[in-house]
Amino acid sequence: MSASLVRATVWAVSKRKLQPTRAALTLTPSVVNKIKQLLKDKPEHVGVKVGVRTRGCNCLSYTLEYTKTKGDSDEEVIQDGVRVFIEKKAQLTLLGTEMDYVEDKLSSEFVFNNPNIKGTCSCGESFNI
């Protein structure tokens, strides 16, 4: 039986600059303002949590809820003083997504502009990736 020897060299890099990575979720100024406004009335909460649930025609739907703490496996996005936590199950589905808040004469809602969505259900509430 022959033994193989593998060598590895480790170099200490002291002045390496880390490149900032792109945030998992980008927040528009209108969603930042709306979340600040909502949290003003709930001082015990530190931010909002985005999740994903099975819904509609066997697809996925985003959920939003107030949160008091960051979960162990939550991804945290901090932008302009607003903290948004992303549940582990939703992290891959939200990569590259922009979260917006839109108001018109008849409705107001949080909108997720997700470039990864391949299609939506006819119910209009769910999507598939």
The ordered string of helix (H) and strand (E) elements is EHEEEEHEEEE
Give me the oligomer status.
Answer: single chain
* Main beta sheet strand tally, sense and closure: 4 strands, mixed
Unreliable spans are: none
Radius of gyration: 20 Å
Function: Involved in the maturation of mitochondrial 4Fe-4S proteins functioning late in the iron-sulfur cluster assembly pathway. Probably involved in the binding of an intermediate of Fe/S cluster assembly.
Domain Core: 25-125
Subunit structure: Interacts with CRY2, but not with CRY1 (in vitro).
Protein name: Iron-sulfur cluster assembly 1 homolog, mitochondrial
Write the layout of secondary structure elements.
Blueprint: E1 25-27, H1 29-40, E2 47-55, E3 59-67, E4 75-79, E5 82-86, H2 88-94, E6 97-103, E7 108-113, E8 119-120, E9 127-128
Parallel strand pairs: 1-6, 2-5
Antiparallel strand pairs: 2-3, 4-5, 6-7, 8-9
